[in-house]
Amino acid sequence: MDTLSYKTKSANAATADKKWVLVDAEGQTLGRLSSRIAFVLRGKHKPNFTPHVDCGDNVVVINAEKIRLTGKKMAEKQYIHHTTYPGGQRFRTAQEQIGMEPRKVIEAAVKGMLPKNRLGSKLYSNLYVYAGSEHPHQGQNPQTIELIS
Questions:
Q1: DSSP states of 52-112 as a string?
Q2: Nearest by Cα to 125 from 24, 66, 56, 65
Q3: Among 54, 65, 123, 137, which residue's CB has the most CB atoms within a 10 Å radius?
Q4: Would you say residue 1 has pLDDT above 70?
Q5: Shortest CA distance to 33 belongs to which of 68, 57, 65?
Q6: What would the pLDDT profile of 41-98 be if each residue is shown by its tens digit?
Q7: Residues with Cβ within 8 Å of residue 7, at least 6 apart in sequence
Q8: Residues 6+ apart with CB under 8 A from 114
């Protein structure tokens, strides 16, 4: 007979209760928004948070091209990519990156805030970022949340 009434509950894939969440990035500051998105992806906002399990929600971010950066970051922050050819390291400012691929700005910021292991890769796959206000996840009925108050 088990008389202990306060057993610790650990979440697993079956008990995770994953939801779909919609976040509007219009006018939001990049770092603050990204840290809150990473918080939701990890599942730290849930009472049954378990550090080694993917118990976070699926996050859909819209209006990525309308993100805001403070100070001189728009002109001075650099994004690096490599063409895979010798000497192929290329640099883009945040302004150029938002002009070409605005979703990658938010994806890079959130990815840097997740764990650097297999769990972090799994959590990152639950993030969906779109440049405009249209997204193909209407069937999941994502609930809109306000991350920054």
A1: TS----EEEEE-GGG-B--TTHHHH-EEEEE-SSTT-EEEEEHHHHHHH-HHHHHHHHHHT
A2: 56
A3: 123
A4: no
A5: 68
A6: 999 999 889 999 999 999 999 999 999 999 999 999 999 999 999 999 999 999 999 9
A7: none
A8: 38, 41, 42, 120, 123, 124
User: Could you tell me how many residues make up the chain?
Assistant: 149
Residue 149 is predicted with a pLDDT of 56
The three-state secondary structure class of 144 is strand
Point out which residues pair with 23 in neighbouring strands.
Answer: 61
The answer to whether the beta carbons of residues 35 and 112 sit under 8 Å apart is: no
Q: What's the mean pLDDT in 104-115?
A: 97
pLDDT score, position 2: 63
